[in-house]
Amino acid sequence: MTEVSLRCADLARAFGGLQAVAGVSLALYAGQVTALVGPNGAGKTTTFNLITGNLRADSGTAEIRGKPIMGLKPWQVARLGVARSYQDLRLFTHMTVRENVLAATEVSAWFWQPGGRRAQQEREHRAEAALDATGLTSLADARAVDLAYAERKFLSMARILAAEAHIWLLDEPASGLDLASRIRFGSLLKEAQTRGVAICLIEHNLDVVVELSNRIAFLDQGRVLAEGDPDTILKDPALAAIYFGDRPQEAA
Ligand SMILES: Nc1ncnc2c1ncn2[C@@H]1O[C@H](COP(=O)(O)OP(=O)(O)OP(=O)(O)O)[C@@H](O)[C@H]1O
């Protein structure tokens, strides 16, 4: 059986009267891509926020390789090996591409480590490798704000790579990418899978989901309605009706 990298159970979070996440249970496996699929407002990004400590859960549990993480701060979760990307990318727009990637390497620089030249060189080496893997080496000295859209998406991925995390939570990383860029993106994921990274992908484009994911967790109204292999989930007419906004109860 494949190793479980992250497991959460019964996660819940309300915003006032709105139950955004209503008892989500989910496992992410080493070397596998799990796609979180569901209509707008289903609770996908909020689930990420609960896992990463960006939001506090009202209830539920989560653990990384068996270590409980509920209540930890985002930086503490990051140090347990979770890297996360955002829909709005959250780059340091006025820093250079290289500086953006170097900043992401600091997550694994433990505060008691002697800094020293060697540690610095190791971080620089990781940053250069991430730039190379994402095709950004020639743009390393450009400011993030001056990059084209697809290049910004790849910069966000370079930051993930440089963090050397074993769990990646990616919020719509392929949205707006053309086919060639999507293929490049797909090969980054494949390479990470071979290294045992557990990847969770929020994705609206079902072609991308089929291309890249091993499993789907289908969310609706804060709940996982179904989980399984992409073929089975995407062929389910009831889920398709929900996904495309055609619920039977809304038809009247
Ligand atoms: N900080 C917040 N305060 C109030 N309501 C929120 C907050 N964050 C999310 N919500 C609401 O919670 C629900 C779930 O939002 P969430 O962003 O998790 O959905 P999603 O599945 O990621 O949607 P999308 O696919 O559109 O990004 C939505 O109704 C959203 O408006």
TrEMBL record:
<keyword id="KW-0067">ATP-binding</keyword>
<dbReference type="InterPro" id="IPR027417">
    <property type="entry name" value="P-loop_NTPase"/>
</dbReference>
<dbReference type="Pfam" id="PF00005">
    <property type="entry name" value="ABC_tran"/>
</dbReference>
<dbReference type="InterPro" id="IPR051120">
    <property type="entry name" value="ABC_AA/LPS_Transport"/>
</dbReference>
<dbReference type="GO" id="GO:0016887">
    <property type="term" value="F:ATP hydrolysis activity"/>
</dbReference>
<keyword id="KW-0547">Nucleotide-binding</keyword>
<dbReference type="InterPro" id="IPR003593">
    <property type="entry name" value="AAA+_ATPase"/>
</dbReference>
<dbReference type="GO" id="GO:0005524">
    <property type="term" value="F:ATP binding"/>
</dbReference>
<dbReference type="GO" id="GO:0005886">
    <property type="term" value="C:plasma membrane"/>
</dbReference>
<keyword id="KW-0813">Transport</keyword>
<protein>
    <submittedName>
        <fullName>ABC transporter ATP-binding protein</fullName>
    </submittedName>
</protein>
<dbReference type="InterPro" id="IPR003439">
    <property type="entry name" value="ABC_transporter-like_ATP-bd"/>
</dbReference>
<feature type="domain" description="ABC transporter">
    <location>
        <begin position="6"/>
        <end position="246"/>
    </location>
</feature>
